[in-house]
Amino acid sequence: MRAIVIEQYGVLPTVQEVAAPEPQAGGVVLKVEATGLCRSDWHGWQGHDSDIVLPHVPGHELAGTIAAVGAGVTGWQVGDRVTTPFICACGTCEQCREGNHQVCPNQLQPGFNYWGSFAEYVALPYAEVNLIRLPESLDFDTAAGLGCRFATSFRAIRQVGKVRAGENVVIFGCGGVGLSAVMIAAALDARVIAVDTNPEALKLARTYGAAHTVQASTYGAADTGHASTYGAADAGQASPDVVREILDLTGGGAQVTMDALGSNELVQQALRSLRPRGRHLQVGLLPSGVQLDVSRLIGQELEWLGSHGMPAHAYPEMLDLVASGNLNPADLITNRITLEQAPAALAALTTATPAGVTVIHP
């Protein structure tokens, strides 16, 4: 099969012919119909994930058709249209028995623990626990984006943060995760404020339901060591004080903030933007050495809520909202590329995060 292969960290990967995976007992092999390009793939390419062993094939947001079924798998057959969370849970441990598949200690993640979906075929373990049947009305491009960014945002906003109608919700970082969160929070009738350095991302945030956008001048981009500076957005210039603007827009602070990027600076801004007893959602992976104002957490009775993915059994509520038209994740897709174009798109994440979601067609 054709696949994107990383042979050295930080060195542009290439399209190569490699052996296709075989189905393992309890697992399946999918023909990849669509796979998303995510910043987590960039981190893996840079060598930030200790689970990766070179040579390696990245990719963890995917949808496709079952091409082969392993021994012991029931309820699934060749040709079924499916997607999966990026966390493939074992289904038998204590956390899985309690329904917390997203924190399974035995989890396997395609594109990290083993070769992923930037390829024509990908293997998936623990099929009966992790496969999600796609309705015929849901196309593969849209379904691919559900497994990581959209599902992660849905669980964070809806199930962990428990966002309610009328609440002020501030989303820091408007990449794929952030824009998904904007759309989901707006669908819950929250008053959403989107913060980013990229004016194009802020325009999309308005389209997806943000009531206000705040142009940040710079902030560190999730472990990259780079900062971004952009031109004018809504107000004609970047906000000199993001926190002050948010406090003014919310009348004293938001009920909920979310760091959708993973940045020390964003975390500090998010906590300072909360009103007393507010809730902070941490979804972006943070660099080491982040220091929190714990005194503020205690004195203001703030809640720090980590959220990591979403288990397969929690998908029905989200899929129902998509089917009803209340959520439109297809609108987040702004770019479709081929496997040959994927290495350059991966490398472009070094300097900036493009607005919207990029989908790869292997």
Automatic annotation (TrEMBL):
> Sorted alphabetically, which InterPro entries does this protein's record hold?
ADH-like_C (IPR013149), ADH-like_N (IPR013154), ADH_Zn_CS (IPR002328), ER (IPR020843), GroES-like_sf (IPR011032), NAD(P)-bd_dom_sf (IPR036291), Zn_alcohol_dh (IPR050129)
Q: Which cofactor does it need?
A: Zn(2+)
Task: Give the UniProt keywords, A-Z.
Answer: Metal-binding, Oxidoreductase, Zinc
User: Residue limits of the Enoyl reductase (ER) domain?
Assistant: 10-360
Keyword check for Magnesium: no
Family designation: Belongs to the zinc-containing alcohol dehydrogenase family.
Protein name per the record: Zinc-dependent alcohol dehydrogenase family protein
